C-alpha cells in the first residue's frame, strides 16, 4: 500500500499548517517542528488527541488553540485510551450511518513521560485491543512541561532535576527504556523511529502509520533546548547528529520485520562514517558533568552501550 | 514561648521547607511523581539523595497511582515513607488513598493544593484535598512556610502513634505557599531526629496465633490487605474511625511537645482562634488566606470593630467541640471555602460548620463565601467586604443570600 | 460604593498595612532572571534582620514570554498571602515590555520605576502608558554583557534598585549573592555588575 | 486596553477554546531575527520545513519565501540549517 504521494519540499511547504503559529513553545523547540511536519502528513479527516505535556499546554492555552483539527486532551496517562474511545465511537457511528466520512484518521500524541512511564499502561491496552490509530511519541527525553524531571526516556548520564548530577551520582543511572522494541513485541502491524532532520523519512512513516489498518507506533526524536541546555538554533542539527552517531538509529518494523531506513543504512554499509557519541553529547549542558575528570569514564561506557545496541539492531535487520 | 534549642533562619519556599523537614525526619522510602506545584519537593529531595545527604530509597514512579502504591507497600514493610502530590495527581491516587488508610499505613504526604481539571489549571485552590476529605486520611492545613516545616515533622509522630496509625496529608496552598520564599526557623538535625525517633510497631495477633509487630516480615509472617466479606468489613471500618477519634487527642499532644522545643505553637494544634474573645463577627477559614484575614482583623480592631478569625488547622479529624466553643458568643460567622461542592448548598467547610452548630444552644448566623478558585488572588479589600457584609447582617437581622462567590465576575 | 472607597483613601491614604512594608514588582521575560532578582533582594533583606516574601507570578512561563515577580520587605512578620497591588518600586529588566505590559499599573504616586535602557529618562518616560512615579534608567544589558558575557540582567537591576530605594545595603547584597551563586568567580563578577549599576543608575 | 474578559455566563460550555493561537504574536519574544541574503538563497525550503513556529511561508505565486516576524521567536534554526548559509541572525 505504498502511497503514490511523492513528498517534495514544495508539496509539504504548500500544505496548510494544521498545528498553527502562535503556539507558546520555547524558541527552538524541535517537538513543535515534529508536530508541524506530522500534521502536514495527514491524508484526510483527522482527529488528534494529546496527553498532558508541553505540546498540549503550549497549544491549548485557553481560550486559544493552535489546533486546526478536532483535538481533545483529558489527562496525562491516557492518550492511547482517548484514541481508543474515539476510534470505537467512529466505527460504531459509521456503522449506524451517523458519521459521513468514509474514514477518519486518529492520531494520539504524547511525550516521553506520557508514553514510557505514566501512559504505557493505556498504550499497551489500546494496541492489544487493536484500535485503528497512530500513536506518535515526541521524545524530548524528560518531563519538560513540569520542569525537566527524569523519565523512562531519559538517557544514561543525563542530568535532570530529579536525577541531578551530584558529587556522588552522575545524573541518571538507568539506561533509556527501549520503548519502540517493546511496541514491536506487541506484534503490532507497524512500528518506526524517525527524526525531524530527515523530514521526508518522517512524513513517509507518518503516512504509512495512517494507512495501516490497526494500531501503529512512531517514535520521533525531538531535541529540547531548554531541557537539554543546548543552543536553540541547534535542535534540528542535534536530531541529525543523533542518527549519525547511531544513538538514535532510524528503522521500521512492518509486522515485526525490522528494516533499517536509508539515513541509518549509510552507517551499516560504511561503519567508518559513524561519528563518535562525544560530538553529540558535548553540545548539551545536560551532559556537561561527563566532561569532568570525576565522571569521564561514563563517556566511554555510553559509546560502548551505543555500539552494542547498534550491533543488536543490525542483527535484527539481517545486516550484521 | 521560648525555644530551648539553637535555631537558624533560612529563606525557604513552602516546598523547600517540606523537603528540608522530610530530610531531617529520617525517611526510609520516597516514591513520588512530579506534578506542578509540588515538583520542587521531590526535586530538592532527589538532590539530597544525589549528594548522599539522606539514606532514602527514592523511587521515581511512572504515575501517582504507583507512587501511592509503592509508599503503601513500603510502609507495610516497616519503612517510614513520605511523598508529595497535588490536584490531578492526588485524584489519580484516589483509589490507593482509601487502600492506604484502610491498611493503617502511616504514610505522610505533602499536598501542594491545586485546582482540579477541567479546565486545566495549575494554580492553588483546595478542591483537590477537599475531594479526599472522606478517604480516611488525617488532613492538616498550614498558613505559611514556617508552619509547614513544623507540621511535616509533627505529622510523622501523629501518623505513627499506635493509637492512630493513619496516613496524614499536610496541605499547603499551591504557589502562594509552595513557591513563595519566607523566613523559616529550622531545628538542628539531631533534635528533629530525636523527636521523630525510629518507627515502632504495635503487636497484632497473626494467623500463627502469636502477637507480632504489625509489618511484613519473614520472621513473623502475616497477611495484609485481604478481602473482607460483609460479615467483617463494617467492623474493620468502625475500628478505623476510632483511630481518627484518637487523633483528636494525639495531635494536640504532639503539637505541645514540639512547641516546648521549638517555641512555636498554632492554637492547640487543632484550631487557632485570633482576636476571637469578644468578636461579634468572625471569619472561619483554612490555609494561607488566614494570614491576610489577620492583617485585616488588626486594622478593623484599630477602627473599633469587634472582628475575629478562627483558623482550622486540623480539618480531619474535625475538632467539633473546639469549634462549637470558639464560636459560641460570635453573632455572625462567614465561612470561607476555597472549593466548590457542585450541587451542594455552599462549600464543604460551610457544610461542616453549619451542621455541627445545629444543636449547639447559642450559635451564630453562618454564611458562606466560595473564593479563590483556580488561584484567583484574594485581596485585603475583599476580606474587608466580608466583614462589611456581616456587620450589615448584624444591623438588619436578616440574610439576603447565605452563599456568595467572592471575586467572581458575575 | 466606588465613591466611598475613593473618599476613604483620599482621607486616610490607601489601604497600606500599618507596619513599615515595602513592596517591589519585577518585570522581565522567561529566562532573564526576574525571579532570581526578586529572591536575591529578599535574601539580602534577611541579612538586614528584616521579614521577607519573594514569589513569582505563577504560570507556564516559557523562554521569552513576559513574567513578573514580587518582593515584600518589612520590619514586622509578613502575614499577607496575596499579590502586590500597589508596589512602592517597579523594576523592568527588558524595555521591549513597555510596548505590551502596563508596568506602572498600581505604582504609588511617591514610588520609583527603574528601567533597563540606554535611552535618557525623559525618552523612556514617553514610552510609559501612565506617567506615575519617578523614572530611573540604567544600561543593565550592556553592563551585564561587559562583566558576565551574557545579557542576564537580574543582578544588574538589583544594584540599580538598591541604590534608588535604599531598602537594602550593598554588604547584605554581597552575602545574598554568595549564598545563591556559591562559586567565587561567579559571585565576584556579579558583585562587580551590582556596584557598576549602583553608580550608573540615573534619573531626570 | 485589555479586551473585557467574558463572564462565566458568556463563555462556551466545557471550556471549548474560542480563539486561534495566531492571535498571540509570539514575535515579540525574540532578541535576534533572521535576515536572508537573496543571492545565496536557493529556495530549497528547508527553513520553511524546520521552523518550529511556521514563521517562514512559501509563496508559490512569487516563487519565493517570506519571513513572518509576527511569529518568529528568533531561535536561529533556519540560519543553522540553511545549506548555503544565506540566513544570518541579527539583534532585533
Overall description:
The complex is a heterotetramer of chains A (320), B (410), C (204) and D (92). With 410 residues, chain B is of the alpha/beta class. Chain B has helices spanning 14-24, 39-50, 64-76, 87-92, 94-102, 127-130, 145-160, 189-196, 233-262, 289-302, 320-327, 348-357, 380-396; strands at 8-13, 29-32, 57-60, 81-85, 108-113, 138-141, 168-173, 181-186, 203-205, 211-213, 271-274, 281-285, 307-312, 314-316, 332-337, 365-371, 403-406. Chain B folds into 2 domains: 8-201 and 228-262, Rossmann fold (3-Layer(aba) Sandwich); 271-406, Rossmann fold. Helices cover 39% and strands 20% of the residues of chain B. In chain B, the strands form 4 sheets. Chain B has a 7-stranded mixed sheet, with helices on both faces. Chain B has a 6-stranded mixed sheet with strand order 11-13-12-15-16-17, with helices on both faces. A two-stranded antiparallel ribbon of chain B has the order 1-8. Chain B is globular and about 70 Å long. Chain B starts with 7 loop residues before the first strand and ends with a strand. The model of chain B has no long low-confidence stretch (mean pLDDT 94). In chain C, helix 2 packs across helix 6 (170-181) and helix 5 crosses helix 7 (184-200). Mean pLDDT of chain C is 89; it is low at 14-18. Chain C has a single domain (17-203), classed as Pyruvate-ferredoxin Oxidoreductase, domain 3 (3-Layer(aba) Sandwich). In chain C, 48% of the residues are buried. Chain D has 92 residues and is α+β, with helices and mostly antiparallel strands. In chain D, a hairpin with a 4-residue loop joins strand 3 (56-59) and strand 4 (64-67). The longest helix of chain D is centred in the middle third of the chain and has 5 residues, at 46-50. Chain D is elongated, with a radius of gyration of 17 Å. Classes of the chains: A alpha/beta (320), B alpha/beta (410), C alpha/beta (204), D alpha+beta (92). The A-D interface holds A 9-10, 12-14, 17, 19-30, 32-33, 36-37, 59-66, 196-197, 199, 225, 231-237 and D 11, 15, 17-26, 29-30, 44-46, 48-55, 58, 60, 68, 70-71, 73-77, 79-81, 89.
Amino acid at each position: 500500500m505504498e502511497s503514490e504521494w511523492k513528498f517534495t519540499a514544495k508539496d509539504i511547504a504548500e500544505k496548510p499548517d494544521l498545528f498553527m503559529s502562535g503556539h507558546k513553545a520555547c524558541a527552538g523547540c524541535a517537538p513543535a517542528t515534529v508536530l508541524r511536519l506530522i500534521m502536514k502528513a495527514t491524508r484526510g479527516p483527522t482527529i488528534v488527541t494529546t496527553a498532558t505535556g508541553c505540546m498540549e499546554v503550549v497549544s491549548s492555552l485557553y481560550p486559544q488553540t493552535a489546533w486546526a483539527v478536532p483535538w481533545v486532551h483529558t489527562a496525562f496517562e491516557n492518550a492511547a485510551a482517548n484514541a481508543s474511545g474515539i476510534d470505537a465511537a467512529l466505527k460504531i457511528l459509521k456503522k449506524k450511518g451517523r458519521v459521513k466520512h468514509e474514514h477518519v484518521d486518529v492520531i494520539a500524541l504524547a511525550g516521553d513521560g506520557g508514553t514510557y512511564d505514566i501512559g504505557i499502561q493505556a498504550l499497551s491496552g489500546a494496541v492489544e485491543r487493536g484500535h485503528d490509530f497512530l500513536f506518535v511519541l515526541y521524545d524530548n527525553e524528560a518531563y519538560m512541561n513540569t520542569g525537566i524531571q527524569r523519565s523512562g526516556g531519559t538517557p544514561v548520564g543525563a542530568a535532570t532535576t530529579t536525577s541531578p548530577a551530584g558529587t556522588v551520582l552522575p545524573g541518571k543511572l538507568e539506561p533509556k527504556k527501549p520503548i519502540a522494541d517493546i511496541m514491536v513485541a506487541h506484534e503490532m502491524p507497524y512500528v518506526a523511529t524517525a527524526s525531524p532532520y530527515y523530514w521526508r523519512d518522517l512524513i513517509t512513516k507518518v503516512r504509512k502509520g495512517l494507512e495501516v489498518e490497526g494500531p501503529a507506533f512512531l517514535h520521533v526524536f525531538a531535541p529540547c533546548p531548554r531541557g537539554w541546555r543546548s543552543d536553540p538554533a541547534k535542535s534540528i542539527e542535534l536530531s541529525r547528529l543523533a542518527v549519525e552517531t547511531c544513538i538514535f538509529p532510524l528503522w521500521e518494523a512492518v509486522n515485526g520485520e525490522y528494516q533499517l531506513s536509508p539515513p541509518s543504512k549509510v552507517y551499516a554499509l560504511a561503519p567508518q562514517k559513524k561519528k563518535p557519541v562525544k560530538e553529540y553529547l558535548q553540545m548539551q549542558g545536560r551532559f556537561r558533568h561527563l566532561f569532568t575528570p570525576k565522571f569521564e569514564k561514563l563517556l566511554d561506557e555510553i559509546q560502548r552501550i551505543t555500539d552494542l545496541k547498534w550491533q543488536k539492531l543490525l542483527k535484527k535487520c539481517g545486516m550484521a | 514561648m521560648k525555644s530551648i534549642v539553637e535555631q537558624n533562619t533560612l529563606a525557604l519556599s513552602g516546598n523547600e521547607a517540606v523537603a528540608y523537614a522530610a530530610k531531617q525526619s529520617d525517611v526510609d522510602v520516597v516514591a513520588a511523581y512530579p506534578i506542578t506545584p509540588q515538583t520542587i519537593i521531590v526535586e530538592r529531595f532527589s538532590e539530597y539523595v544525589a549528594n548522599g545527604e539522606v539514606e532514602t530509597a527514592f523511587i521515581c514512579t511512572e504515575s501517582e497511582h504507583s507512587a501511592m502504591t509503592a509508599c503503601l507497600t513500603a510502609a507495610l514493610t516497616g519503612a517510614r515513607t513520605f511523598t508529595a502530590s497535588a490536584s490531578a495527581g492526588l485524584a489519580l491516587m484516589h483509589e490507593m488513598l482509601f487502600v492506604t488508610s484502610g491498611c493503617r499505613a502511616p504514610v505522610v504526604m505533602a499536598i501542594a493544593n491545586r485546582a482540579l481539571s477541567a479546565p486545566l489549571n495549575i494554580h492553588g485552590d483546595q478542591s483537590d484535598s477537599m475531594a479526599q476529605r472522606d478517604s480516611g486520611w488525617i488532613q492538616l492545613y498550614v498558613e505559611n512556610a514556617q508552619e509547614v516545616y513544623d507540621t511535616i515533622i509533627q505529622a510523622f509522630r501523629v501518623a505513627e502513634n499506635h493509637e492512630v496509625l493513619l496516613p496524614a496529608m499536610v496541605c499547603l496552598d499551591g504557589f502562594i505557599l509552595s513557591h513563595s520564599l519566607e523566613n523559616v526557623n529550622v531545628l538542628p538535625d539531631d533534635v528533629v531526629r530525636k523527636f521523630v525517633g525510629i518507627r515502632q510497631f504495635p503487636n497484632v495477633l497473626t494467623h500463627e496465633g502469636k502477637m507480632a509487630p504489625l509489618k511484613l516480615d519473614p520472621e513473623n509472617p502475616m497477611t495484609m490487605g485481604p478481602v473482607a466479606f460483609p460479615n467483617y468489613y463494617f467492623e474493620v471500618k468502625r475500628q478505623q474511625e476510632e483511630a481518627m477519634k484518637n487523633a483528636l487527642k494525639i495531635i494536640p499532644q504532639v503539637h505541645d511537645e514540639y512547641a516546648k522545643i521549638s517555641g512555636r505553637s498554632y492554637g492547640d494544634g487543632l484550631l487557632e482562634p485570633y482576636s476571637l474573645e469578644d468578636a461579634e463577627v468572625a471569619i472561619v477559614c483554612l490555609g494561607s488566606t488566614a494570614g491576610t484575614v489577620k492583617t485585616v482583623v488588626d486594622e478593623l480592631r484599630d477602627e473599633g470593630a469587634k472582628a475575629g478569625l478562627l483558623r482550622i488547622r486540623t480539618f480531619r479529624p474535625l475538632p467539633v467541640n473546639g469549634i462549637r466553643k470558639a464560636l459560641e458568643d460570635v453573632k455572625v460567622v462567614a465561612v470561607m471555602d476555597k472549593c466548590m461542592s457542585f450541587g451542594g448548598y455552599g462549600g464543604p467547610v460551610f457544610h461542616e460548620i453549619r451542621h455541627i452548630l445545629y444543636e449547639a444552644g447559642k450559635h451564630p448566623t453562618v454564611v458562606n463565601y466560595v473564593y479563590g478558585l483556580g488561584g484567583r488572588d484574594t485581596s485585603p479589600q475583599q476580606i474587608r467586604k466580608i466583614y462589611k457584609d456581616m456587620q450589615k447582617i448584624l444591623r438588619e437581622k436578616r440574610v439576603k443570600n447565605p452563599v456568595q462567590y467572592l471575586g467572581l465576575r458575575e | 460604593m466606588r465613591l466611598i472607597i475613593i473618599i476613604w483613601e483620599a482621607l486616610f491614604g490607601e489601604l497600606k498595612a500599618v507596619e513599615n512594608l515595602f513592596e517591589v514588582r519585577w518585570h522581565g521575560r522567561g529566562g532573564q532572571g526576574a525571579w532570581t532578582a526578586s529572591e536575591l533582594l529578599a535574601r539580602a533583606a534577611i541579612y538586614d534582620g528584616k521579614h521577607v516574601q519573594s514569589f513569582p507570578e505563577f504560570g507556564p512561563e516559557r523562554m521569552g514570554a513576559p513574567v513578573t515577580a514580587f518582593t515584600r520587605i518589612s520590619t514586622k512578620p509578613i502575614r499577607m498571602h496575596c499579590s502586590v497591588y500597589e508596589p512602592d518600586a517597579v523594576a523592568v529588566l527588558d524595555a521591549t515590555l513597555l510596548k505590551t505590559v502596563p508596568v506602572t499599573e498600581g505604582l504609588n504616586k511617591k514610588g520609583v520605576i527603574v528601567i533597563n535602557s540606554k535611552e535618557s529618562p525623559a525618552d523612556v518616560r514617553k514610552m510609559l502608558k501612565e506617567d506615575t512615579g519617578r523614572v530611573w534608567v540604567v544600561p543593565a544589558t550592556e553592563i551585564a554583557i561587559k562583566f558576565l558575557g551574557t545579557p542576564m540582567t537580574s543582578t544588574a537591576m538589583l544594584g540599580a534598585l538598591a541604590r534608588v530605594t535604599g531598602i537594602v545595603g550593598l554588604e547584605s547584597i554581597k552575602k545574598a549573592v554568595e549564598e545563591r551563586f556559591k562559586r567565587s568567580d561567579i559571585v565576584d563578577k556579579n558583585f562587580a555588575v551590582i556596584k557598576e549599576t549602583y553608580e550608573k543608575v540615573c534619573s531626570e | 486596553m485589555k479586551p473585557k474578559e467574558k463572564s462565566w455566563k458568556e463563555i462556551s460550555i466545557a471550556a471549548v477554546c474560542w480563539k486561534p493561537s495566531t492571535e498571540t504574536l509570539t514575535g515579540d519574544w525574540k532578541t535576534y531575527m533572521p535576515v536572508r541574503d537573496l543571492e545565496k538563497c536557493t529556495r530549497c525550503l528547508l527553513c520553511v520545513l524546520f521552523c518550529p513556529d511556521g514563521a517562514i511561508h512559501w509563496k508559490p505565486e512569487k516563487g519565493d519565501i517570506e519571513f513572518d516576524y509576527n511569529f518568529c521567536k528568533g531561535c536561529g534554526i533556519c540560519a543553522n540549517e540553511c545549506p548555503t548559509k544565506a540566513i544570518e541572525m541579527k539583534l532585533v
